[in-house]
Amino acid sequence: MANPLLQKFSTPFSTAPFSKIKNEHFKPAFIKAIKISKKEIDVITANTKVPTFENTIEALDFSGQTLDRISSIFFNLNSAETSDEIQEIAQEVSPLLTEFANDVRLNEKLFKRVQLIYDIKDELNLTPEEDTLLTNKYKSFVRNGANLNEADKLELRKTDTELSKLKLKFGENVLAETNAFELHITTKNDLKGLPESTIEAAAMTAKQKNKKGWIFTLDYPSYIPFMTYADKRNLRKKMAIAFGKKAFQNNKNDNQQVVLDLVNLRYKRATILGYKSHSHFVLEERMAETPKNVITFLNDLLEKAKPAAKKEFKLLSNFAKKDGVKQLEKWDSAYYSEKLKKELFDLEEEQLKPYFKLENVINGVFSVSNKLYDLEFEEINTIDKYHEDVKTYKVTDTSGNYIAILYADFFPREGKRNGAWMTSYKGQWKKDGENSRPHISIVCNFTKPTETKPSLLTFNEVTTLFHEFGHALHGMLANTTYQSLSGTNVYWDFVELPSQLLENWCYEKEALNLFAKHYETTELIPMDFIEKIKKSSNFLEGMQTLRQLSFGILDMNWHNNNPSKIKNVKEFESLAFENTQLFPDVKENCMSTSFSHIFQGGYSSGYYSYKWAEVLDADAFALFLEKGIFNKDVSQKFKEAILTKGGTRKPMDLYIKFRGKKPTNNALLKRAGLIK
Ligand SMILES: [Zn+2]
Fold this sequence. Notes:
Helix content is about 55%, strand content about 5%. By secondary structure, it is α+β, with helices and mostly antiparallel strands. The strands form 3 sheets. A 5-stranded mixed β-sheet has the order 3-4-5-9-6. Strands 1-2 form a two-stranded antiparallel ribbon. Strand 4 and strand 5 form a beta hairpin. Helix 1 runs parallel beside helix 4. The longest helix has about 30 residues. The site of zinc ion (ZN) has 4 residues, from helix 17.
């Protein structure tokens, strides 16, 4: 039988033919698709005609579509419906894909053509979208060293190899240190304050290790509840200190030298490529653009949030004093925050859940999208699915024009990774007069229905659904020519704007009235519940903000300068933290040696983007609040300027088109209750 992944999909809307795909189809399909892609590139480089935008840049963007489709099907399944077999295939095909990507990046003939066009860019009369595409393609070569002499190219490759080894080493050390610690409890009295489920899990862990009693570890699902609820202060202290000294104990898992090597190599890489620092290199492709902008941004927020944070710290300290706590320490923070929160806003999750039946919330997000963006959703059963739990919708505009296919996969099961995400099975592009529409998917892990109860969501799950749906709108409404600029293919400090923006509707009466009805009585959610949700979501916001800012500032300090003179990791870190610390320093602890976001993951010079995205969504939502949360002028502008445009232009230009001005921090500070 022919490989269904390599045939033209003859399904309705050409969706992925899941029921026909078998695991053994993937590897041969990948190999064949890589071959096809290579041929497409060869056709471009072998062209004897003068390089043009069409025969090179555009051709490059439309190459590799078969491979794209297969990759998206496969890697989405690896997240949502994986198995040992699929993971094995992933191990086998990943090196093939990396090798192919490198072949393209290092293809000198191809780069020469791109460069020739880039050099005469201003004479070409390109549209803004074409201009962006050309710049992106050119930069993707140059930022990987295409313009360097042979010696520097070699040096860059060497640096890259060392960097990836060090990042791996960093992660391994953190993991080893996390696993090396356990808090073994043998007397029941030491468990005081902990919820039943946490105690059960700890007993299970002990059992697995053939030990009596209860074991708590530094893994988040064990650590966080322990720090939040355990009454025994000395035990919280023990846990916190163990957590804080990961990879900072002068043993074989120590990361101090790894951190120093990493920042020096990153700096070296940036300077080889002609940038002033690693931050300069990273931020060139961000909305924030420069380190100076990021630092100004962080410092401005710091100045505004600090007075509130200090006040909250005092409030929390006074609250803890009743317990005999003289000095509030890091290991008291989560514990007393939770206690105080309970005292101030006595609102149980269980009281809210009946108002958020999953089906009602889905209809709610559909109604909101309809009111804002004229979208209609029809569940259809002709679409092939990868699991029976998945729901499929045909999305149209109010005139019936086909916009997108939407998959929604809500419940946890074995083989699905944790969390919630939006992804796509097919991108959007325009070619030969046809607008090829996208296939978008949202995947969540929500509370499952039982035999007697429907799926009732926690409020956090409600905002999660709106969040992922905001990303999905960005994907579904995409309307660009080139796939690589379409939908959520934007700078990553801009990508959370549509998602975080949509979360705001979850707190508005006018929106909640559309769907937040008691699943048994159909009574609308009481207004004072909504008020409590709003207030409690801002609880200790100053302290939270300060903490986030401290990480952002530390990240910038590590990457924004020449690090060759830094000798002592802890000293350097303390200096960076100087203006952001409320709690006394713990001398045996160090943040940097386990700061995986920036030293292992992809967040170096990017930690600020969490706050950046919040500023954007608050500033954008302020206009909705001013004109009405369902005001059509505002929503149409947002749709036109941002949701349809993807990465076709610089994010700030798109934002200004929508908002008429640059964003400011004020709306966020106001929403967070940090300024009046
Ligand atoms: Zn998101």
